[in-house]
Specification:
By secondary structure, the protein is an alpha/beta fold. 55% of the residues lie in helices and 12% in strands. It has a 7-stranded mixed beta sheet with strand order 2-1-3-4-5-6-7. Helix 12 packs parallel to helix 14 (277-288) and helix 13 (255-272) runs antiparallel to helix 14 (277-288). It starts with a strand and ends with a helix. 32% of the residues are buried.
Length: 292
């Protein structure tokens, strides 16, 4: 199976390298930056022209690894610049977690098989990102014919598919943003709090990383309910009260987020069965007082 890659950034590069290593033939690569395309070709040991037409014509399946706001425009460009006979029955998958397959409608009208094929993973490193595609989950939404090709790729990468309803794509992607992007934001808040507490800059980064990693391990081993620890899970309202007091005085910009997350954590603790009704009541009073 020949695969064309449109977009040679972190994600496009990861797919190109992983698929090449998994026995797929890279039919063509196109990038707005010719330099990125040439660099990727060099890594793969192949020679292709930096041409969107060539990437499409020489491939059975085309992956659109470009920013969300460019997908529709590229789909329209392909549909208008390449004869319909070369589009019909060819597979186009975009890799966006937020957009549905509808954004590829200009190609579907010409008889292409379309879908969205989103790796549930983060790709911050262009050089080693391809490794993260193995044993990965992929969100899929699209037509049944495109699904067959997506399943072939997933099978080769040792992954699993998660089927998404088109109308629920936004919730799915919001979940991905919360667990990945907002974890970075929470870590940044922790970093700022530790600096405020007088801890050295490097230690403020390094000291809590094992805690974060072990928390993820506990979620994997025990499930997200049973992985909960800390003062709220123990019903220790006195400690929570001290936290709120210090935040209010030292870094008031983080008080509301502490209270909001704490209130949701009370619900998890109740599901876990670690709080009494009286402990729940005291914690809620603390966490909802003056919140927002």
């Amino acid at each position: 199976m020949k695969v064309g890659i449109i977009g040679a950034g972190r994600l496009g590069s990861a797919f190109a390298i992983a698929l090449d290593k998994s026995g797929f033939c890279i039919g063509g690569i196109y990038s707005k930056s010719g330099e990125s395309s040439r660099a990727l070709c060099k890594k793969l040991g192949i020679e292709t022209n930096n041409s969107i037409e060539e990437a499409v014509l020489k491939s059975d399946i085309v992956l659109l690894a470009v920013p969300d706001n460019l997908i529709g425009g590229i789909a329209s460009e392909i549909a208008s610049s390449i004869k319909g006979e070369h589009i019909e029955k060819k597979v186009f998958l975009h890799l966006s977690g937020a957009m549905t397959s509808d954004v590829l409608q200009p190609l579907a009208i010409l008889g292409a098989f379309t879908g969205s094929f989103h790796p549930i993973q983060t790709f911050a490193d262009r050089d080693s990102g391809w490794q993260k595609l193995y044993n990965c989950f992929f969100g899929f939404e699209g037509c049944s014919e495109a699904l067959k090709y997506a399943e072939t790729i997933v099978d080769k990468l040792g992954g699993k598919l998660v089927f998404i309803k088109k109308e629920q794509k936004n919730l799915y992607h919001a979940a991905a943003c919360i667990i990945s992007n907002y974890t970075v934001t929470l870590f940044h808040i922790v970093y700022k709090l530790l600096l405020k507490a007088g801890i050295d800059d490097k230690l403020a980064t390094d000291a809590f990383l094992p805690l974060l990693k072990n928390t993820v391990d506990n979620i994997e081993k025990l499930g997200h309910i049973n992985a909960l620890t800390g003062p709220i899970s123990r019903g220790d309202h006195k400690v929570v009260s001290k936290h709120i007091d210090s935040l209010s005085k030292e870094v008031p910009e983080y008080e509301d987020i502490y209270k909001m997350l704490g209130r949701l954590t009370v619900d998890i603790a109740m599901q876990r069965g670690s709080l009494s009704a009286e402990e729940e009541k005291r914690l809620i009073e603390l966490l909802e007082k003056g919140c927002f």
